[in-house]
């Protein structure tokens, strides 16, 4: 039997050990991904069918020429001449798809069991996304002191990782989510540092506006607001304050996205003018008579089913690792999800988890209903305990395909549609395969428009035309 005190002691020990390891500058694991020393500037993928991120049909085999980081040419199979300065990759049996986009990811999260309380490894998370073919991530909630620097370093080519969009700290009401959860789960010696950098707890319209203004110097890509109660009994932001955040952000050319839980939360956020629901309605089934109001909002619905299913199963054990999890996560971490330490689990967390276990079918049915009602469903996994950065998105794609989207529709939710939303542009330069677009691409084994799990069988990842080298932890 392990008491909560043991857990805290263990966390403290872990934190200290990690810090010492970082200080000593040793014991870093081998990278999951690396950029070749002398990458080819021209690559010809010969005779490969394409899922282009827009059409739901896979094309006949094509020759695709990548040059200087862009898709230079798409031509009939066999028509592009191979030259000495062009590296040729055979595309037979593969499919070329756009690099995947996770519309709800976190770079600063740890995905091990909640009771381990391990410190996150953001650089490893970035590698893991890329390893799994995720070339773009929207991180809607992170430490302001971390995420913007990291985003900028990736953009400047100083750090290996997917293109990042960052919202930074999360706006909430005093004591609301995620402040309440952090209070409960983060060790005391980290709370004083993390809370004010991870959240903006605003109690009035004035504080809301000032909070948005205070972030502008970081150049956030969006503002994130929470309209949901986690655990179930914490307070939620009022509609007037959400509206003030949305209006202030808009005055500075920024969109606001919302974390929601119930139908009421979804409508309150939509009425205030948010640009996307960053979770689906996950706490209850959407009544059919409310569906037209959800559809009329005209904003995307990022279901993140996988994160709620992961929490629903957190105390149940029996978690089966996926291929990409085995390739990117240490076996010791994967096997540490069971057994759950005796007596672990704050009471409010247990109640929340029980609720999630009872609403699994509702979440799936909600995705099916909103999709049928014409709402744009986007693929986002979140990254939290049990949802690993990269592998989590592939799990989410499978869930979307199990909840009413065809495999091709699920793929589009993680490529073309996701890019249009993130770039706020009907013709973005990523997420789509067409001549002139950025060559963020993946080659997968088989046909993911027929079998969505083909996305896990990655043959090659290209970032800005560079074929990356992938190094699995378990070959
Ligand atoms: Zn999240």
What does this structure look like?
This protein is an alpha/beta fold and about 475 residues long. It has one domain (about 100-430): TIM Barrel (Alpha-Beta Barrel), CATH 3.20.20.140. Helices cover about 35% and strands about 15% of the residues. The protein contains 17 helices and 20 strands. The strands form 6 sheets. The protein has a 5-stranded parallel β-sheet with strand order 11-10-12-13-14. Strands 4-3-2-5 form a 4-stranded mixed β-sheet, with no helix packed on it. Strands 6-17-18-19 form a 4-stranded antiparallel β-sheet, with no helix packed on it. Mean pLDDT is about 90; it is low at about 1-25. Zinc ion (ZN) binds near residues 104, 141 and 382.
SSE order and pairing:
Layout: H1 4-24, E1 33-34, E2 42-48, E3 62-67, E4 70-76, E5 87-90, E6 94-98, E7 100-102, H2 122-131, E8 134-139, H3 144-155, E9 163-166, E10 170-172, H4 179-185, H5 188-198, E11 199-201, H6 205-215, E12 223-227, H7 239-251, E13 256-260, H8 263-271, E14 276-277, H9 291-296, E15 301-302, H10 305-312, H11 323-328, H12 331-334, H13 347-358, H14 360-372, E16 377-378, H15 391-402, H16 407-413, H17 416-423, E17 441-445, E18 458-463, E19 466-467, E20 469-470
Parallel strand pairs: 2-5, 7-8, 8-9, 10-11, 10-12, 12-13, 13-14, 15-16
Antiparallel strand pairs: 1-20, 2-3, 3-4, 6-17, 17-18, 18-19
Residues 104, 106, 141, 382 line the site of zinc ion (ZN).
